[in-house]
Amino acid sequence: MEQKKSKKIIIRALVVLCVFFIGVSVVFSRFVYIQAEKEVQGQDLQTLLEARWSQKKIIEGKRGTIFDKNGEVLAEEIPSYTIIAILDEKYKNRVEDPEHTAVELSKVLEMDAATIEEYIVTGMENERVQVEFGPRAKYLSYETMKEIEALKLPGIVFREDPRRFYPKQSFASHILGYTEKDMSNARMGLESSLNEYLQEEDGSISYQKDGKNRRLVGAEDIIDPAKNGDNVYLTLDTRIQMVLEQTMNQVEEEFQPERIMAIVANAKTGEILGMSNRPTFNPNQYESISNYTNFTISSRFEPGSTMKIFTLAAAIEEGVFNGNDDYQSGEYIVDEWPIRDHFRGGWGRITFEEGLQRSSNVAFTILALEKLGEERFYNYLHAFGFGEPSGIDLPNEANSSIVRGSKSELATTAFGQGTAVTPIQQVQAATAIANGGKMMKPYIVDRIVSADTGETIIENNPEVAGEPISEETAEEVLELLETVVTSEVGTGRPYAIEGYHVAGKTGTAQIPNPEGGYLEGHGNSIFSFLGMAPAEDPEVIVYVAVDRPQLEEEEAGSTPVSMIFKAVMQQSLQYLNISPSETTGIADKEEKVVGEVVGQKTDDAVEVLKDEGYQVIVLGDGSQIKEQYPQGNTKAINGERILLKTDGEKFHLPDLSSWSLRQVYALKEMLQLDINIQGSGFVQSQSPEPGSVIDEDTKISVTLNTDTAGTDAGKKSAAAENDEDILMD
């Protein structure tokens, strides 16, 4: 019995021993596995150990800065501050009086005191350690932070956060674009398209610590350095851009147009020196943006007569333009549809040079249809860059839409109707005229430089995009375009600048009506001017377009456009140290002061004013001058009409042919006449006949140049543009 009992004990012992060894083997195997894999239930033991015995801190990189060509900051990362209210009672520095705190903060923040107090009270009721006050108490400037800090409010502290800042506010906003305040997303413009260069990369620093979170002495730090975003230098010149922004603000306020577009370019290199749109926005307040479109590159429209520049260049290059040849102005029939000049009756038989100066659509229809022909004309359009984007280094560039098919489409394209192009395409094409036939690709990014090493990563240089015409042709085109500004009949007279010779072309583009045809009515056009100066060797190109300005009946479309063009071009030339020309031009005459002749004898006053070069219109048969227009000691162009009202009692109606609307209004006021005025611009017809005796009861009717050109409704436009910018002195 005892042997059997001993045997059972031995067996049990062996079983227990085997189980023990198996258990030890399993544990040992697991230990070996853990040692090798350093993982338990999916948890990385090495990571857990490093987290327990090491500390890692983020080293924040800095987003790249955008500069103008002279190194002025246009977009940068700066520190900002968020208000935090400490509420927990275990902190000595905590909010003690919610109402007082709220009232004091409301004096600095754009927030109601009750709203601030509600944040604090709600936080206390919910036993929050701290609270913030919403978006209006975030991303505060250093100045605002200091102002709040000076209040010495218990429990009010600040957290520092980086944010994107645009120091010049709405300056070049569509070019720069914007990022969200915390720079988490880049939106629009260069901020978006160059984000891969501007974007920073955070780094880190790691070190070992003991159980009390103290850095271990002698332990080696592991540093992964941050990479700062690259810096971008633009071709924009802040001085030129600032003048552009200021004058566009003035025009926007005074004329309330639908849109304004303007580009300033270096004629020799294609560098964009200035570019802006209206409506604009402040990228620091991107929540209120109403217009996200950079019209200068993303909007295409029928350009109007600025397109005649390139039709003219093509005709000269092909040897089919003779400025002294004449033609019958007024109307030209194409496929049974009339193309008309903006002065419906035309100017009789005039030369092609005068047709250019007067912006005759008939002249350019003849050049396109009879002189160039379809194939050659469209080949030149393509050579001038119309038909494909310019390739400017800005996002969302649109392409042109060139109509081609019928003869009427060829004709209207030649003078800027039907076909739609972008402002930047026109500026690129104009560089060929200004630069001896070499067309320069426009660009706005000068270079991209590493903020960490100073190494230039990308550098742009002037690039010839094509040579559509010869140097000789370019010179001849410039000479002819200068006469558009200097000629007595030139549509460009309002764009003359004292001391400089300007070459350029006006444009008045009709706007398609969604219901068919084109919009009608005074001011319902896109008025523009594409000009280059100095005309003898252009350095600067300025394009300005104003869409549907609110004009008075006596105001011309050139008024808002010339306000921008003249200010920007003159300042640009001066900033670039381009000296005024020694020869005089039309602009120099604008500074002449009219003498005061009221009270003088009629014969003496007439003699004096005629000697000064003015056209003198005497009203009445009196012997002494009672009133004059323009008034004495005001400026007037040499050769302008001077109206003199005498003390006589009998008045005859002058010949009003070619009088401006402003001069007609002056006559109406001086003699208190009943004049029915139709249209705007220069007088086309009048009733009664010149020389008729008139008085206050005489019914007088005057018709001025009006926008009567165009084809019949329903057909694609062969309509002539109304170059209204000439129609006011």
TrEMBL record:
**PASTA domain ranges (all copies):** 588-648, 649-706
What the entry lists under Gene3D superfamilies is as follows: 2.20.70.70, 3.30.70.2110, DD-peptidase/beta-lactamase superfamily, Penicillin-binding protein 2a (Domain 2)
Q: What are the transmembrane regions?
A: 9-33
Location of this chain's protein in the cell:
Membrane
Name its pathway. Answer: Cell wall biogenesis; peptidoglycan biosynthesis
The region called Disordered is annotated at: 704-729
Q: Which reaction does it catalyse?
A: Preferential cleavage: (Ac)2-L-Lys-D-Ala-|-D-Ala. Also transpeptidation of peptidyl-alanyl moieties that are N-acyl substituents of D-alanine
Q: Which GO terms describe its molecular function?
A: penicillin binding; serine-type D-Ala-D-Ala carboxypeptidase activity
Top-level class of the enzyme under EC nomenclature = hydrolase
The alphabetized UniProt keywords are:
Membrane, Transmembrane, Transmembrane helix
- The protein's predominant localisation is membrane
Question: What Enzyme Commission number(s) apply to this enzyme?
Answer: 3.4.16.4
Q: Could you state one GO biological process linked to this protein?
A: peptidoglycan biosynthetic process
Pfam families recorded: PASTA, PBP_dimer, Transpeptidase
A GO-annotated cellular component: plasma membrane
Family of this protein: Belongs to the transpeptidase family.
Protein name as it appears in the record: serine-type D-Ala-D-Ala carboxypeptidase
